[in-house]
């Protein structure tokens, strides 16, 4: 490393940064001014480097009435992504800005508890200390067993880029609303089911009580009632009341505006199906009554049970998991939607914006864009969906909320209230009580930590209350400029959480130490009424006070009771391996995994964050060369050889820019290429993103790889031009070969030249081993065909020669091509074998732009009125044809075979435009009687 | 290994070497069919196609279903399900003038011994007759008499309402293979080697009953009669399995001309091998006839022959028009002849006057190009022999349509929409003129633009 200090200095700042601590310092002349945030492993592209997570992720948190704010799950569910980012801490922060969380209970003037159909609140929140900015979407779900029947949740899109959150706010809001709607729909179903069961229970209880009273009455003829009897009567009365209340609740939940339910296409689950699941969820939600569970596993045979007069203590019951709350099916759908969101907003802001502009432009060419753009469909679908879910006007919004109502959620946050756990305590009192109580509790708890921390906590509390170091600024106020003199307070905050963090802190010279939460904006569409602001603003300070020890509370629970429960909750989610959850919320585990790099600081001086979650031995092996690779990329022979058979794994822009630090990016890439190697046998093309949401075949990676392979093909085969011409002119190209992987790879690469018939599927068949048929040529324009040895393959070859007039045949094994002659000028520009383009993604874009140009020519040709219709009755067809030819040649500047390409595209455009029902049937097979030629290397 | 790549454009070599099959390269400038549409609805061999009106046709086959198609768009309009076994005959049924509804009707006969009358506009099964003793193999409608006849092992006469009017006695176990109408209320039925002439007696004042009488049996054919067609007002023609073609007078049922073995080259051939080849009866069986004012076109074995009615001789022939038996031929208005064959191809021929007498009937240029000298030699041998009676015209191959993977059973020509072929590979292919279609699509596009009001938006 010392031997080549210049390389190191240029390529990998972190290493250099770390060196002085372990090894003799570098000579002064070699030192290069370093990127200030290099210790975080940030790349120079990132504006903010404080973030401890490698890329954006989605966090779902709950404000548990038992343990306070807690993270439930992250998407992607990968510890690598959020690294050492403190989820507990952040959960606390994001949960503490929910102004909307409404109280459901006995509102003044109402006899029964009332459910509010609360609108979700959407806020943007920043935490510069953590380097995290978040779009936070609060929602409440109903739970019969919860306090006030509500459980506040929030989904947060967490990014290190503030601008990204701000500029994508509308999109984020729209997407998260869908997810939220899905959750809430499922929740309403589950809640209604739960209520029904509860009603049955109550009914049964009433019957039992009634009988008992009767018996007592009969047994007791003395004319006066025993205290026992009176108690029973009271009990009966309370059950009666409870029944009425629950019936009322059921009515309320059922009266939820139905159009909303319909609105969310995402949640269109089958009702009867979900009913069953609801009952199942309900059964599992009573773990304390597990003895009864068997009795009512099947819904029709639900046996009502006796409800004891005394309700169980708050702590005794286990709260339902999110999945139980929302019905598994809806929960899974939500997860899919969330991972879709994660995919959607992956990448740097400029990348997102460019692609949005790109899409907007593509939408404008709605007539031609189906030809070569394959992701338009998904987008338009999304857009349609967006339209179909209108921004909800809030009928369920409470008309006016009193100050204390709004304060309640914040107060509830405090550990104090959690400790007291007395539901019946009057609200007003609780607020005051809570404040004191929690201070006490604070001290009590803090005693278990070292005194310095205690001091810090107190310090922070004070600061919080005077709003100096930490401030919550609501509604787009200026970012807090108050900076703490030292960052001790945060360090101390995180000490108990993760020793690793401390270490990184100590090593890094952080300059940004201000610790502030900024609520930068709220959603305008979900307009908060002014009272809400007023109401919530004063509470900000309270909130802050609570936050410090709540994070402590979080530690608390992790150590004790709730950790397994959390694990369970996570396991409920379909795609969450338990180990990951553990590390996501239990710090102990995480530091476990951190141990490896910690123990070898000399070898891996750079790993600070999420790096550690990849296999350590691999990492160390590849480490050096890899980081060099990242910057020097293609020039590195070692890398090329290591990834032979695959396109040099370039950084695709979204990936690169999205990630916050170099090391992680490169590692990410590395792990990708590693997975490539392992999946060499399988197709490189068919790798689909792991998310449940269909993101379509045209992922960035896919395009890049296709572009790279296409580039390779062009360089490798001198007859690439006629082959590409065949594809562009609609003549089916059959790629014949023995090796499936190679054929598939080439087919994928060449598919970027294939015009689509409709926007539903590319006419590409990657691999066929049976003889081809005439229908195949009508349907597919690019076919990968297996070459089978002599006797069995005779049929295949015979069919191929029989239908040779419809096909061009590329024989990979013999490096030969049989296809018509091409003498145009278009393809040479499209596929220049001497092109300077080296990257697959660049080439892909080049092809796209060329093809777009071509499309516009085809568009002009198709829609020029005078070219296709006779100007007057006497004009013959020959004159029209002549006009067409001269237009193609002179106006569009097409030569020879290029004309056929445009004509073919024009036919596709015509077909598509005139088609009434898009996507029905296959287009006709057009062909020319032209001689073919054999090209051979 | 690469052989197929080199010679991809022609038929497999083995076949090409065996017979001097005329082939055409990939460059077919005169072939107008540059667009095709594969129609898939049948599950078995499609044997029959019938035109319903100027844009619709019906197809039927061994799967027992009848499908009505739009010939312009290739859209499947209707599927008629009713028969349980393969369909043996399909005919359009002119709705009587008395009948109010102008719906297009078709009659289908099936191996399940039923005949069904369908309404092709609604897909309704109008009526079903299932009192047959045997499978009906041919159907004929006599419009003048408002009756239709069904031919199986016997011949039955039905009226428009599908009432049985009368029937003949059991004729033969093989049944009637073909039926045509001739003047004087007579019909000719081909039963095995025999031609039987029946006369229909319409009800008169004396007898209210219909009757059908056997008038005459013509026993001139040596073998089974495969084809029987009306040629013009004065004659009809029959062809048999052994290659006899007899032209009959339509009024007195006498033989006008008989061509037996005239296309059988065996007397002229000396090589043992070729005699053997031609003695295979299949090679000279006459499968189909078509005609125009001057000529009768016969599909004989693999070959095509043009017989001039005036000259009473073959004026053009193509001995190996296909690799396999020619199943159906049709004459187009523009002197073109289309043939389809068991080899799965459809070929388009043009009847041309020969410029010089010495012209070779089989062009060999193609083979020279590929260097198959031996084939060339063989091909030129019969040419010399035929010098003295060389036909004055020739059939030139101007294009072939390759699409089906099995024998092409039949085709149907639409003046406006192109050609429809049906095949044993369960498919129907619609062949179209690409340029014409392109123009039509443009027209449709601008019509739609106009409808949407987009056409003059910019102006």
From TrEMBL, chain A:
Gene for this chain: SMCR8
Keyword Cytoplasm in annotation: yes
Region annotation (Disordered) ranges: 266-294, 383-402, 668-707
One example of a Gene Ontology biological process annotation: autophagy
Species per Swiss-Prot/TrEMBL record: Ailuropoda melanoleuca
Subcellular location: Cytoplasm
InterPro entries noted in UniProt: FLCN/SMCR8_DENN, Folliculin/SMCR8_longin
Main location: cytoplasm
Taxonomic path: Eukaryota, Metazoa, Chordata, Craniata, Vertebrata
Family from the record: Belongs to the SMCR8 family.
Comp. bias regions, Low complexity: 276-285, 671-685
Any GO CC annotation of this UniProt entry: Atg1/ULK1 kinase complex
Entry keywords, A to Z: Autophagy, Cytoplasm, Guanine-nucleotide releasing factor
Pfam families with a match to the protein in the record: Folliculin (PF11704)
Comp. bias (Polar residues): 686-698
Residue ranges annotated for the UDENN FLCN/SMCR8-type domain, each copy included: 48-910
Protein name: SMCR8-C9orf72 complex subunit
Residue ranges the record marks as coiled coil: none
One annotated GO molecular function: guanyl-nucleotide exchange factor activity
Automatic annotation (TrEMBL), chain B:
Record carries keyword Cytoplasm: yes
Record GO terms (molecular function): GTPase activator activity; guanyl-nucleotide exchange factor activity
Gene3D superfamilies: YVTN repeat-like/Quinoprotein amine dehydrogenase
Swiss-Prot/TrEMBL keywords: Autophagy, Cytoplasm, Repeat, WD repeat
A Gene Ontology cellular-component term: lysosomal membrane
Record-linked SUPFAM superfamilies: WD40 repeat-like (SSF50978)
GO BP term, pick one: regulation of autophagy
Signal peptide extent: none
Pfam families: Beta-prop_WDR41
Keyword Repeat on entry: yes
InterPro entries xrefs: WD40/YVTN_repeat-like_dom_sf (IPR015943), WD40_PAC1 (IPR020472), WD40_repeat_CS (IPR019775), WD40_repeat_dom_sf (IPR036322), WD40_rpt (IPR001680), WDR41 (IPR040102)
Stretches forming WD repeats: 80-128, 319-359
UniProt-annotated location(s): Cytoplasm
Chief place where the protein resides: cytoplasm
Subunit structure: Component of the C9orf72-SMCR8 complex, at least composed of C9orf72, SMCR8 and WDR41. The complex is formed of two protomers, each individually consisting of one molecule each of C9orf72, SMCR8 and WDR41. The protomers homodimerize via an interaction between C9orf72 (via C-terminus) and SMCR8 (via N-terminus). Within each protomer SMCR8 (via DENN domain) acts as a bridging protein between WDR41 (via C-terminus and N-terminus) and C9orf72 (via C-terminus). The C9orf72-SMCR8 complex associates with the ULK1/ATG1 kinase complex.
UniProt function note: Non-catalytic component of the C9orf72-SMCR8 complex, a complex that has guanine nucleotide exchange factor (GEF) activity and regulates autophagy. The C9orf72-SMCR8 complex promotes the exchange of GDP to GTP, converting inactive GDP-bound RAB8A and RAB39B into their active GTP-bound form, thereby promoting autophagosome maturation. As part of the C9orf72-SMCR8 complex, stimulates RAB8A and RAB11A GTPase activity in vitro, however WDR42 is shown not be an essential complex component for this function.
Protein name: WD repeat-containing protein 41
Organism from which the protein derives: Ailuropoda melanoleuca (Giant panda)
């Amino acid at each position: 490393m010392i031997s080549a200090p210049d390389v190191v200095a240029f390529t990998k700042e972190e290493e250099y940064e770390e060196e002085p601590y372990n090894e003799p310092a570098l000579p002064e002349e070699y030192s290069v001014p370093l990127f200030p945030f290099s210790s975080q492993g940030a790349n120079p592209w990132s504006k903010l480097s404080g973030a401890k997570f490698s890329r954006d992720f989605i966090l779902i948190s709950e404000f548990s009435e038992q343990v306070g704010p807690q993270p439930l799950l992250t998407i992607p569910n990968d510890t690598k992504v959020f690294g050492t980012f403190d989820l507990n801490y952040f959960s606390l922060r994001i949960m503490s800005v929910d102004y909307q969380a409404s109280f459901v209970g006995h509102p003044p003037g109402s006899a029964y508890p009332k459910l509010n159909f609360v609108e979700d609140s959407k806020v943007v929140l920043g935490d510069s200390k953590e380097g995290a900015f978040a779009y936070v979407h609060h929602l409440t779900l109903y739970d019969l067993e919860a306090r006030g029947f509500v459980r506040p949740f929030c989904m947060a899109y967490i990014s290190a880029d503030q601008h990204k959150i701000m500029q994508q706010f509308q999109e984020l809001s729209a997407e998260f609303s869908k997810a939220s709607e899905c959750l809430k729909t499922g929740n309403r179903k589950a809640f209604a089911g739960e209520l029904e069961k509860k009603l049955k229970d109550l009914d049964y209880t009433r019957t039992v009580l009634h009988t008992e009273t009767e018996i007592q009455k009969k047994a007791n003829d003395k004319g006066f009632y025993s205290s026992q009897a009176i108690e029973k009567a009271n009990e009966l009365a309370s059950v009666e009341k409870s029944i009425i209340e629950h019936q009322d609740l059921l009515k309320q939940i059922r009266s939820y505006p139905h159009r909303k339910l319909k609105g969310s296409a995402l949640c269109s689950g089958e009702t009867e199906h979900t009913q069953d699941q609801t009952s199942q969820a309900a059964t599992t939600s009573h773990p304390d009554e597990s003895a009864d569970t068997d009795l009512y596993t099947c819904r029709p045979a639900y046996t009502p049970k006796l409800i004891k007069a005394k309700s169980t203590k708050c702590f005794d019951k286990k709260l339902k998991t999110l999945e139980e709350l929302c019905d598994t099916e809806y929960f899974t759908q939500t997860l899919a939607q969330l991972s879709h969101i994660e995919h959607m907003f992956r990448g740097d802001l400029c990348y997102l914006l460019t692609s949005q502009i790109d899409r907007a432009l593509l939408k404008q060419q709605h007539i031609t864009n189906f030809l070569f753009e394959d992701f338009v469909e998904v987008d338009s679908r999304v857009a349609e969906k967006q339209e179909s879910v209108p921004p909800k006007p809030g009928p369920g919004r409470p008309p006016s909320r009193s100050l204390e109502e709004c304060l309640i959620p914040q107060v509830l946050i405090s550990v104090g209230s959690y400790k007291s756990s007395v539901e019946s305590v009057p609200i007003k009192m609780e607020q005051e009580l809570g404040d004191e109580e929690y201070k006490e509790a604070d001290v009590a708890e803090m005693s278990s930590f070292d005194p310095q921390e205690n001091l810090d906590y107190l310090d922070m509390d004070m600061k919080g209350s005077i709003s100096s170091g930490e401030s919550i600024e609501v509604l787009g106020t200026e970012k807090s400029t108050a900076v703490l003199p030292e960052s001790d307070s945060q360090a101390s905050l995180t000490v108990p959480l993760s020793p690793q963090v401390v270490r990184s802190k100590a090593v890094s010279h952080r300059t940004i130490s201000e610790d502030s939460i900024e609520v930068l904006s709220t959603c305008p569409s979900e307009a908060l009424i002014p009272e809400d602001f007023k109401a919530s603003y004063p509470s900000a300070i309270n909130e802050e006070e609570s936050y410090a020890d709540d994070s402590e509370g979080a530690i608390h629970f992790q150590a004790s009771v709730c950790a397994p429960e959390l694990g369970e909750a996570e396991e409920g989610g379909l795609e969450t391996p338990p180990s990951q959850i553990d590390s996501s919320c239990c710090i102990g585990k995480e530091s476990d995994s951190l141990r490896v790099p910690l123990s070898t600081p000399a070898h891996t001086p750079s790993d600070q964050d999420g790096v550690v979650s990849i296999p350590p031995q691999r990492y160390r092996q590849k480490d050096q060369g890899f980081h060099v690779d990242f910057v020097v990329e293609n020039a590195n022979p070692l890398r090329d050889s290591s990834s032979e058979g695959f396109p040099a794994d370039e950084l695709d822009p979204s990936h690169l820019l999205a990630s916050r630090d170099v090391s992680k990016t490169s590692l990410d890439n590395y792990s990708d290429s590693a997975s490539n190697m392992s999946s060499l046998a399988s197709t490189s093309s068919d790798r689909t993103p792991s998310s449940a949401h269909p993101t379509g075949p045209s992922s960035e990676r896919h395009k890049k790889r296709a572009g790279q392979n296409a580039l390779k093909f062009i360089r490798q085969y001198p007859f690439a031009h006629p082959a590409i011409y065949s594809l562009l002119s609609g003549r089916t190209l059959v790629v014949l070969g023995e090796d499936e992987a190679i054929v598939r790879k080439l087919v994928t690469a060449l598919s970027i030249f294939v015009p689509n018939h409709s926007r539903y599927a590319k006419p590409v068949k990657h691999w066929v081993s049976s003889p081809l048929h005439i229908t195949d040529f009508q349907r597919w324009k690019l076919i990968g065909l297996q070459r089978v040895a002599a006797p069995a393959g005779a049929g295949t070859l015979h069919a191929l020669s029989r239908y040779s007039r419809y096909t061009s045949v590329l024989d990979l094994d013999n490096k030969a091509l049989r296809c018509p002659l091409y003498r145009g000028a278009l393809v040479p520009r499209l596929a220049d074998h001497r092109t300077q383009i080296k990257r697959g993604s660049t080439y892909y874009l080049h092809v796209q732009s060329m093809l777009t140009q071509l499309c516009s020519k085809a568009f002009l040709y198709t829609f020029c009125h005078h070219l296709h219709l006779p100007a007057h009755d006497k004009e013959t067809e020959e004159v029209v044809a002549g006009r067409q030819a001269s237009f193609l040649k002179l106006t569009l500047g097409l030569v020879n075979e290029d004309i056929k390409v445009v004509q073919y595209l024009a036919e596709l455009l015509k077909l598509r435009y005139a088609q009434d029902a898009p996507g029905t049937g296959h287009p006709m097979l057009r062909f020319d009687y032209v001689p073919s030629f054999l090209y051979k290397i | 290994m690469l052989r197929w790549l080199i010679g991809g454009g022609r038929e497999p070599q083995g076949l090409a070497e065996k017979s001097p099959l005329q082939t055409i390269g990939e460059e077919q400038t005169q072939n107008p069919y540059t667009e095709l549409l594969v129609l898939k609805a049948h599950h078995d061999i499609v044997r029959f196609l019938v035109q319903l009106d100027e844009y619709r046709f019906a197809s039927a086959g061994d799967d027992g279903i009848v499908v009505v198609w739009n010939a312009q768009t290739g859209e499947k309009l209707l599927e008629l399900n009713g028969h349980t076994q393969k369909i043996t005959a399909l005919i359009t049924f002119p709705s009587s003038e008395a009948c109010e509804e102008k719906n297009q009707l078709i009659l289908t006969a099936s191996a399940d011994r039923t005949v069904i009358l369908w309404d092709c506009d609604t897909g309704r099964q109008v009526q079903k007759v299932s009192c047959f003793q045997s499978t009906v193999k041919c159907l004929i409608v006599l419009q003048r008499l408002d009756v239709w006849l069904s031919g199986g092992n016997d011949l039955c006469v039905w009226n428009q309402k599908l009432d049985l009017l009368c029937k003949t006695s059991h004729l033969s176990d093989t049944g009637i293979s073909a039926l045509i109408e001739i003047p004087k209320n007579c019909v000719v039925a081909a039963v095995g080697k025999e031609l039987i002439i029946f006369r229909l007696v319409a009800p008169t004042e004396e007898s209210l009953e219909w009757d059908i009488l056997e008038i005459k049996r013509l026993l001139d054919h040596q073998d089974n009669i495969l084809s029987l067609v009306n040629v013009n007002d004065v004659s009809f023609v029959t062809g048999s399995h052994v290659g006899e073609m007899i032209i009959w007078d339509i009024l007195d049922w006498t033989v006008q001309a008989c061509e037996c073995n005239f296309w059988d080259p065996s007397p002229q051939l000396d090589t043992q091998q070729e005699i053997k080849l031609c003695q295979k009866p299949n090679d000279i069986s006459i499968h189909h006839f078509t005609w125009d004012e001057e000529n009768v076109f016969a599909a004989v074995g693999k070959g095509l022959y043009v017989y001039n009615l005036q000259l009473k001789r073959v004026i053009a022939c193509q001995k190996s028009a296909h690799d396999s038996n020619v199943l159906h031929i049709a004459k187009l208005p523009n002197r073109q002849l289309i043939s389809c064959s068991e080899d799965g191809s459809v070929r388009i021929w043009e009847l041309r006057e020969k410029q010089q007498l010495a012209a070779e009937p089989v062009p060999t240029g193609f083979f020279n190009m590929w260097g198959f000298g031996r084939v060339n030699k063989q091909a030129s041998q019969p040419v010399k022999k035929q010098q003295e009676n060389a036909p004055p015209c020739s059939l030139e191959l101007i294009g072939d349509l390759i699409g089906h993977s099995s024998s092409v059973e039949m085709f149907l020509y639409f003046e406006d929409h192109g050609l429809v072929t049906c095949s044993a590979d369960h498919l129907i292919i619609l062949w179209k003129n690409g340029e014409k279609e392109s123009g039509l699509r443009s027209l449709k596009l601008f019509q739609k633009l106009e409808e949407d009001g987009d056409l003059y938006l910019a102006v």
